[in-house]
Amino acid sequence: MNKIVSIVGRSNVGKSTLFNRLIGYRKSIVNYKSCVTRDRNYGFCNWNGIEFCLIDTGGYTNKSENIFEKKICEQFFFALEESDIILFLVDPSNDILGIDYDISKILLKLKKIIYLVINKIDISKNRDNTSNFLKLGISNTYCISSINGTGTGELLDSIVSIFRKNYLNKNKKKFPRIAIVGRPNVGKSTLINTLLNKNQNIVTNISGTTRDSIDVLYQKFGIECILVDTAGIRKKKKIKENIEFYSVMRAIKSIQNSDVCLLIIDIKSGFESQDLNIFKIIENNNKGIVILINKWDLIKKNENNLSINYEKEIKKKITPFNDVPIFFTSSFTKKNIIKSIKTAVKISFNLKLKIKTSLLNKIILPILYKNTPPSINGKYIKIKYCSQIPTYNPQFIFFTNYPNFIKETYKRFIENKIREKFNFTGIPIKILFRFK
Q1: 122 is annotated as contributing to ligand binding
Q2: Percent of the chain having pLDDT more than 90?
Q3: What's the total number of domains in the chain?
Q4: Per the annotation, does 299 bind a ligand?
Q5: Are residues 321 and 259 in the same domain?
Q6: 153 is in an annotated binding site
Q7: Percent above pLDDT 70 for the chain
Q8: Other C-beta atoms within 10 Å of 126: how many?
Q9: Are residues 154 and 182 in the same domain?
Q10: Where does the EngA-type G domain lie (predicted)?
Q11: How many angstroms separate the Cα of 41 from the Cα of each of 9, 149, 263?
Q12: What is the value of pTM for the model shown?
């Protein structure tokens, strides 16, 4: 048993609210607009020492011609396939709807553990209507309120009792977190689908189809990491919906919670100002960066010499931090996809490199002695020694007689030399100077 629980049901019965209640924070976007959760959303719930994976799904519909609702139905069935336990959430504010019967028929055919979870019992009139839902034929029933938490403890007790006998008390392995970021519709979800060989996320030609940030465990070709697909990050003035605002903020939060970011660029639209803005967000959050120039299959063969000039142009725009891996990729032909992921994982490990002070001084100080900082008003600047600060991201402190006189250009020179000598490619480095 994999310890995976899915929350399913029709739209607006409170699935995302219950999901957020159980995992303990607002990971899934909650709004009173139908079909806000479009993709499967993953999180972890820990109850009485038992941890399990929780999946929030979009509202199930049937016989819909809407392109998004069709895709949501596909996601619904994928979630059922993955799960050990299924929480069928219903809303007693109304009588049983036809769609509720349809869902129950689907679930009863599965060889899965099914819970009928009657939500919104914090409203007094709803409590009188709960027995009506026994007509759905699911005997394992719990009445809860996802808003105030009533009944959720008993529900969790029952879930973990099923998992307990198979539970091994091991810490969850810490996999590198790789966030897939970029402007809307540059191919972020398609990239993940290519890696997984399945439709993990909703993919259409309409921008904005990923609204939540989706976590996916990837274990293939010797690679182990968490891939995080994010909503496309637009300029503030182009954000029109409240939900899209939440999505953009969630994408930025995913950058902050990641180790490395794959910045996806659309080859046809080029490296725009918003791409540079996203790059700066990643850099300012001290995350590793790999740039993917996507949809390379759309370039004609006689244009392939474009890659050299294109790479030069990007590095010029992201200067001074331009020691960043750049790959020309295609989800259609799978060109450089695996290579870029392997590079991102390598960068995630290099982020944690700790350089011994003796080795750092042995390699860096001779370089600085040959390339001394320019003197200021006849005052000669001498760098005496350096050390790495024990922080998550690489930070180095240099002790000198005139720390305030060292110019930004020389600081960048030191940064680039450290990155070159100690394999910090694609990693922002912070350089500090102190008086000694």
Answers
A1: yes
A2: 39
A3: 3
A4: no
A5: yes
A6: no
A7: 81
A8: 18
A9: no
A10: 176-352
A11: 14, 20, 21
A12: 0.59
